[in-house]
Amino acid sequence: MARKTFFSFHYQEDVWRVWNVRNCWVVSKDQEAEGFYDGSVFEASKKESDESLKTFLRNGLKNTSVTCVLAGQYTAARRWVRYEIVRSVLKGNGLLTVDIHGVRNKEKKLGVKGTNPLDEVGVYLANGKIYFAERKNGKWVKYSDYSSAIPASDLWFDAPTSNVVVKLSKYCKRYDFAAQNGRENIADWIETAAKLTGR
Q: Which InterPro entries does the UniProt record give (predicted)?
């Protein structure tokens, strides 16, 4: 079954590597058989305000069932990558990280492996309600771009039971595109992420 997939990434730093990863399936005559479609947003940086950008990114996630975070050296710290991750959880999308530092950039250079973006966002329980948290300057703080409580029924994973932040990476898999033959395997990785959510 093909999955419509949203790709989240650091545009300025990694767009060349991302194009290589996303286009690996184009060589196939039967693109659907490769297991994913392109539902990403590339021009987000051109939007005028934070609210319009949030709306734009939410619209980009519509009709997708999986969010694949293509992680480079600096992706984990990017505000809008974190927002895409949080909105993906709220939407019930499967989530996975695919490291792309082993893909050469425009200058034919390899990158440096970065922190897993799903290590930098988590959930916790406070006063009987569930909230998102993010890591800033080495400390967990309440996530500011979505501060509402999350109904436990909206989560496809176990709800947190204390004020200790549970990283989203606990529930999601991480892969290395170059080292684990992503060209052949990314469709299976995406399918696994979908199945973890019960989709």
A: ThsB__TIR-like_domain (IPR015032), ThsB_TIR-like_sf (IPR036490)
